[in-house]
Amino acid sequence: MSLTGACCNTPPNNDAHWHNKGVNVTLSREIAGDKRSTYRTGPKDSKRGLIAIYDIFGYHPTTHQFFDRIAESHGGFQLSAPDFFKNGGVKEMGPGVMAWVGENGDYVKNHIGDIIKAAVEDLRKDGCTSFSIFGQCWGAYMAVQASSEEGNPFLASGGPHPSFFSVETTKDTKAPLIILASKDEADMVPIVENLKSKNFPVESFTKRFDNMHHGWTGGRGDWENPEQFKAGLEAVDLLGAYFAKVVAASESKL
């Protein structure tokens, strides 16, 4: 169980040109005595909230574009993407990446769960009544840890090119998963099959992008490349549609 070799050995891409649609704001509640910020985007009148978690490279142009486009898809979502890394994302590639993640990206030690809860609280204050969560790479694993907590509010979880995903690490999720794998990840079908016994209102879903490398929707994505851009837009559409679907299924039960 580890980050992919591609993630550990390849630096992020900074070439994409994108004018951010959202803004950075401070979370209304301090975390462990610190003020923390989040990137907020999407229509402010939407009642559907999304928590987005970047990959180990932190904020990058492609990451912002990905989040902005999802927030505007399928009727719109209020999206909050907290800045979990106080000093920015990974700077040095190579074998030290796992140690960096252990020091800066531990769900409990680095208050990832607490930051997520604070972001949800702010979305709720701004009118959101439903919530889903997703992430990229390490962020997808953080999303699943959040959706595995008792009493969590999330209707769906998952994300593209996940790291640390297995039947064992996803078995406790309280919400269905959408998993968009690249060619660099293991087969995700066994995870989806294992979750069928939970009888979620919407089944978990996976799609493999065999022509994409790990990280193509985040820090390692180059959406100036037409092939990556096309696959990125497909990922946006799949995620937006899935999150809209779980909200509709939840509302139909009321």
The SS-based structural class is alpha/beta
Proper CATH architecture? 3-Layer(aba) Sandwich
Q: What count of structural domains? A: 1
Task: Report the CATH topology name.
Answer: Rossmann fold
Overall outline: globular
Relevant CATH superfamily: Alpha/Beta hydrolase fold, catalytic domain
Architecture overview:
With 254 residues, this protein is an alpha/beta fold. Helices cover 34% and strands 16% of the residues. It has helices spanning 5-9, 61-72, 97-104, 112-125, 138-147, 167-170, 189-195, 226-252, and strands spanning 23-26, 37-41, 48-53, 78-82, 130-135, 157-160, 177-182, 205-209. It has a five-stranded mixed β-sheet, sandwiched between helices. A three-stranded parallel β-sheet has the order 6-7-8. β6 (157-160), α6 (167-170) and β7 (177-182) form a beta-alpha-beta unit. α2 (61-72) runs parallel beside α8 (226-252). The termini are far apart.
Search tags:
254 residues, alpha/beta, Rossmann fold, 3-stranded parallel sheet, 8 strands, AB_hydrolase_fold
What's the helix and strand layout?
Blueprint: H1 5-9, E1 23-26, E2 37-41, E3 48-53, H2 61-72, E4 78-82, H3 97-104, H4 112-125, E5 130-135, H5 138-147, E6 157-160, H6 167-170, E7 177-182, H7 189-195, E8 205-209, H8 226-252
Parallel strand pairs: 3-4, 3-5, 6-7, 7-8
Antiparallel strand pairs: 1-2, 2-4
GO molecular function, one term: hydrolase activity
Domain Dienelactone hydrolase: 38-190
Pfam family, one: DLH
